């Protein structure tokens, strides 16, 4: 992945065709005005590439981070808003229209007050014993409420043709286990604000101040116990740590305090004899939590998560309190995003392919897939050449690597088959109900995959998403139409810029198939060791160089160090992606003479294009949060970290030995 939306992930880029819908303030693929030519490219290439843009683009009040990805996402949101407002009278688009209308109807939401979530809160309050918990947790999961653990479907790591059931750790309100367990000031400060926030939400729901504060303390105690049993984020990057096939009978014996059979029946799971318990120790910890915690405290925990999940679609008092903690305290955003942007995002989340179908019609011309395919092919050829010429890889492993590369499939723009949402009841006067019914539909859809053949045509991102991803279990790369726009690709731009921007991100996704995690999966998607011991050791030695390099970088004024291990996969992909993009450009320009443009050679423009897609400003709060949770490095280090490892950059900008952008011992895997 290249970029990560909150959640969740990936960069890739693309190819836009001339859109049929006009975007306001379109950003060019390369902007001379974004440069800071008073800076020295060999001292700080990020400042040289982005200094002008950084000075003119402070973080907006309703954002925690603002960059070139965000500029495009804003334009896409404006396009989606236009589609939704036009859809108000179109019968064919009734679902997306009604969902958006209900979400935007603040007056009705205020009038309804707590009523939309009251049935859930009353149901939790009526629980008589812990024996009732399983059925209630199933109901909450069906509403999209993250309590205790996660349950769903996944491909089998050892047989990627199969879909199996999977249980995972979950149930935390804070972003990561370390927020509960570490005493660093940045974590302790968040905890200090968390309990009062939870208490205020309970007070808004009608509880007395004293009762609300005690309930909030119970929530923190339960979540801390769950965090203690959870696997650390860095260790979760190893797929071997996420694969523990378990007989259902063994699960029942591990957590006898929870009624698994009742849960599986209530959630309508298909019959199964075994499943993947992703981190077994978590469920041992869950047993202790359920056995040792009083029912009243568990009910407070469930109520809190129900309120937190519903907050965006409850009256303004809940919305504002939710933002005060999760927006201001955690990320440093100063203002709540406009209502229409939040509602557009909700439609994209819950009815994404219905909305995306209209987006594709409006923005992605007929030639888009063909043009993108040609770019991907050029990068694949460059990566093939790179693998063939690697001096550290032996022939047995090289043969397997080339076979895996040849087996990678490409999905570009949008699905071949659109998802059918007709089973979701959407009402123009039931905003929270619409969201809950959409979540229930998605859970049923996911559980329906268990025991069925893998659908390799399915997309994990909506068409309007500004992102892309590589999927190890299917060995494919995926490029939503949302990122196939400037500044990532522009028809009027020279090859150098397009290869530096979109080419580097295509290379990034391809390289994920061979990073520290992707390399553990074979060409057919199975988790398998296809490396000789000698080559595996050589890979680990080169990967350790990246761990050390990026682990030395800091954010928040030097207060917080990045985790070189957490960001290893993305850093490997960044470095490999730009390198093979450079190779592809050199192959494309071979035998031709390209005059300078805007005062820069073709090679210089490739590196500048890479630098400019990562221009970004960020609040200190957000940078601390991402340093803990985001496997991607900040833009400055994505740019400077890569170019400082490339002799090609040193030559292109005539950087002297010893310059900050010239590492004495550069890191390289691919």
Keywords:
single chain; 670 residues; alpha+beta; Collagenase (Catalytic Domain); Neutral endopeptidase, domain 2; 4-stranded mixed β-sheet; 3-stranded mixed β-sheet; 27 helices; 11 strands; 52% helix
Describe this structure in words.
This protein is of the alpha+beta class. It has 27 helices and 11 strands. Among the domains are: 27-58 and 365-412 and 489-670, Collagenase (Catalytic Domain) (3-Layer(aba) Sandwich), CATH 3.40.390; 114-314, Neutral endopeptidase , domain2 (Neutral endopeptidase, domain 2, Orthogonal Bundle). The protein has helices at 45-56, 68-86, 94-104, 106-112, 115-125, 133-142, 178-181, 185-204, 209-229, 233-236, 248-254, 260-266, 280-292, 295-310, 316-331, 339-350, 352-363, 368-389, 395-407, 431-447, 495-512, 533-551, 568-589, 602-612, 620-629, 635-643, 647-652, and strands at 65-67, 149-156, 159-169, 245-247, 274-277, 409-413, 469-471, 476-480, 554-555, 560-561, 616-618.
Largest β-sheet summary: 4 strands, mixed
* β-strand amount: 5-15%
Name of the CATH homologous superfamily of the domain at 27-58 and 365-412 and 489-670: Collagenase (Catalytic Domain)
Which second-level CATH architecture of the domain at 27-58 and 365-412 and 489-670 applies? 3-Layer(aba) Sandwich
Q: Quick one: CATH class of the domain at 27-58 and 365-412 and 489-670?
A: Alpha Beta
Helix count equals 27
- Strand count: 11
Going by helix content, strand content and strand pairing, the class is alpha+beta
Q: Report how far apart the termini are.
A: 17 Å
CATH topology descriptor of the domain at 27-58 and 365-412 and 489-670: Collagenase (Catalytic Domain)
Mean pLDDT: 94
Helix content: 40-55%
Assembly classification? single chain
Choose one word for the global shape. globular
Ranges where pLDDT stays below 50 over 5 or more residues in a row are 4-25
Radius of gyration: 25 Å
Strands of the widest sheet, in order across it, are 2-3-5-4
């Amino acid at each position: 992945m290249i970029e990560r939306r909150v959640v969740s992930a990936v960069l890739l880029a693309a190819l836009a065709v001339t859109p049929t819908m006009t975007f306001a303030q379109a950003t060019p693929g390369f902007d001379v005005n974004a440069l800071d030519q008073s800076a020295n490219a060999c001292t700080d290439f990020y400042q040289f590439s982005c200094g002008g843009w950084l000075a003119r683009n402070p973080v907006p009040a309703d954002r925690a981070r603002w960059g070139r990805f965000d500029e495009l996402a804003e334009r896409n949101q404006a396009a989606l808003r236009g589609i939704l407002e036009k859809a108000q009278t179109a019968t064919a688009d009734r679902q997306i229209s009604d969902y958006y209308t209900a979400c935007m109807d603040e007056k009705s939401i205020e009038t309804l007050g707590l009523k939309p979530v009251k049935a859930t809160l009353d149901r939790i309050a009526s629980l008589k014993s812990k024996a009732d918990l399983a059925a209630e947790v199933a109901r909450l999961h069906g509403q999209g409420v993250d309590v205790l653990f996660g349950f769903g479907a996944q491909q089998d790591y050892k047989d990627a043709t199969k879909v199996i059931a999977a249980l995972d750790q979950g149930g935390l309100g804070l972003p990561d286990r370390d927020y509960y367990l570490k005493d660093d000031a940045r974590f302790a400060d968040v905890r200090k604000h968390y309990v009062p926030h939870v208490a205020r939400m309970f007070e808004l729901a009608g509880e007395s101040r004293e009762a609300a504060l005690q309930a909030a303390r119970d929530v923190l105690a339960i979540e801390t116990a769950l965090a203690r049993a959870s696997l650390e984020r860095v260790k979760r990057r190893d797929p071997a740590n996420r694969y523990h096939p378990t007989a259902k009978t063994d699960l029942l014996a591990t957590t006898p305090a929870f009624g698994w059979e009742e849960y599986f029946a209530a959630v309508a799971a298909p019959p199964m004899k075994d499943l993947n318990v992703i981190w077994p120790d978590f469920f041992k910890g869950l047993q202790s939590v359920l056995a040792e915690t009083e029912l009243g405290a568990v009910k407070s925990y469930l109520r809190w998560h129900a309120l937190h999940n519903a907050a965006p679609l409850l009256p303004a008092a809940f919305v504002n309190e939710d933002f005060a903690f999760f927006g201001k305290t955690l990320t440093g955003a100063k203002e709540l995003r406009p209502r229409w942007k939040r509602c557009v995002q909700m439609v994209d989340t819950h009815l994404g392919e219905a909305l995306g179908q209209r987006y594709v019609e409006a923005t992605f011309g007929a030639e888009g897939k063909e043009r993108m395919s040609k770019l991907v092919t050029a990068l694949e050829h460059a990566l093939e050449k790179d693998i063939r010429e690697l001096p550290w890889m032996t022939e047995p492993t090289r043969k397997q690597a080339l076979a895996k590369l040849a087996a990678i499939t490409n999905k570009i723009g949008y699905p071949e088959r659109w998802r059918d949402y007709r089973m979701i009841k959407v009402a123009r006067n039931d905003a929270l109900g619409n969201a809950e019914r959409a979540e229930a539909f998605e859970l049923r859809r996911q559980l329906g995959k268990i025991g069925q053949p893998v659908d390799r045509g399915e997309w994990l991102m909506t068409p309007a998403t500004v992102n892309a991803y590589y999927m190890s279990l299917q060995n494919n790369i995926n490029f939503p139409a949302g990122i196939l726009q400037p500044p990532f690709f522009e028809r009027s731009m020279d090859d150098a810029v397009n290869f530096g921007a979109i080419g580097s991100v295509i290379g990034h996704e391809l390289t994920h198939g061979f990073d520290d995690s992707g390399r553990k999966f074979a060409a057919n998607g199975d988790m398998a060791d296809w490396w000789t011991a000698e080559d595996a050791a050589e890979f680990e030695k080169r990967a350790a160089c990246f761990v050390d390099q990026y682990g030395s970088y800091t954010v928040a004024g030097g207060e917080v160090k990045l985790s070189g291990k957490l960001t290893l996969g993305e850093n490997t992909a960044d470095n490999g992606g730009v390198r093979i993009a450079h190779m592809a450009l050199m192959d494309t320009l071979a035998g031709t003479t390209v005059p300078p443009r805007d005062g820069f050679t073709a090679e210089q423009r490739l590196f500048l294009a890479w630098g400019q897609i990562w221009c970004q400003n960020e609040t200190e709060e957000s940078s601390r949060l991402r340093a803990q949770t985001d496997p991607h490095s900040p833009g400055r280090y994505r740019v400077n970290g890569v170019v400082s490892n490339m002799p090609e950059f040193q030559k292109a900008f005539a950087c002297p030995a010893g310059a900050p952008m010239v590492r004495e011992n550069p890191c390289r895997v691919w």
